[in-house]
Amino acid sequence: MTSVIVQAAAALRNAKCAVAVTGAGISAESGIPTFRGEGGIWEKYSPDEFASIAAYLRDPNKVWQFWRELAGLVKGCRPNAGHVALADLERMGVLRGVITQNVDNLHQAAGSTRVIEYHGNARRLVCLGCHKRKNIDTNNMGDRAPRCPICADLMKPDVVMFGEDIPRHAMFEAHALAEKCDVMIVVGTSAQVYPAAELPFIAKSNGAFIIESNTERTEFSEVVTDAYLEGPAGETLPQLLRALAQR
Ligand code: NAD
Predict the structure, then answer these.
(1) CA of 22 to the centre of ligand 1 (A)
(2) How far apart are the CA of 246 and the centre of ligand 1, in A?
(3) One domain, residues 110 and 88
């Protein structure tokens, strides 16, 4: 066991309020490609073209093809050992919550109950007219962008597209936790998407110990990280759990 894992486990053992912030990297081992990684859906559909609200409003039926494909991809994916380790940390009473930028529902599927969906959830739809939400029927998504069953207005995936604001309740809860926590575990995020990327900086400026799990170094690694766990989260997070169990 490396000394950095032992150091991270010691910080968690003494924590009064530990939280995790996760990004696309934690789901990479479940088969969902990251934005900036190689391969998969993002090479076929540029995020700029298919993940912005302006593009959706301009041509909803075209952009819907992308979301339909993403929902199909996510449906076939299962949580990996990284998601499970975070759910275990919550069950053990160590972790107060997971703030996730992901829209894939895999933390909930792994058993995490306190999940703040900072960028929404691709398994739901929201109506642009009356704001009704409903779950997507992934077996019957259709070729055309869906219409609301109540008011017939256009519905969109209940995710934060480029050009949209973070849901107020998620922003409020996430920022409050970032200010309050004494340990933050930052997993698989590139530190490039704001305002989510502010959270580790907020935590650090309030004195939190920052544990980072990533396969590559990021701006966090250079500026705020206290314990950098290099490697896939599906390996490093279970190692962290094992170190925590050893007294
Ligand atoms: P990103 O694609 O910008 O960065 C991913 C980060 O994960 C990189 O730093 C990379 O080095 C790291 N990484 C890759 N594999 C890893 C692994 N196995 N273990 C640990 N780290 C690993 O992702 P982001 O910072 O989350 O920002 C992209 C935005 O797009 C976010 O809003 C994100 O949630 C969204 N997105 C979501 C999904 C999803 O829901 N699964 C997938 C792609 C993008």
Answers:
(1) 8
(2) 30
(3) yes
Boundaries of domain holding 52: 41-75+125-159
Find the angle CA(14)-CA(231)-CA(39) to the nearest 5 degrees: 135
Q: Which residues contact 187 (CB under 8 A, 6 or more apart)?
A: 20, 21, 22, 23, 25, 26, 82, 86, 212, 213, 214, 233, 237
Ligand 1 site residues, Cβ closer than 6 angstroms:
23-25, 27-29, 32, 34-37, 101-104, 119, 188-190, 192-193, 213-216, 218, 232-233
Q: Are residues 192 and 210 in the same domain?
A: yes
**Average pLDDT estimate for 142-147:** 94
Are residues 190 and 236 located together in one domain of the fold? Answer: yes
pLDDT score of 40 = 63
**Residue 131 Cα to ligand 1 middle (Å):** 28
Provide, rounded to the nearest whole percent, the portion of the chain with pLDDT above 90.
83
The predicted-structure confidence for 191-205, as pLDDT tens digits, reads as follows 888 999 999 999 999
Any domain includes 36: no
Instruction: Report the predicted TM-score, pTM, of the whole model to 2 decimal places.
Output: 0.95
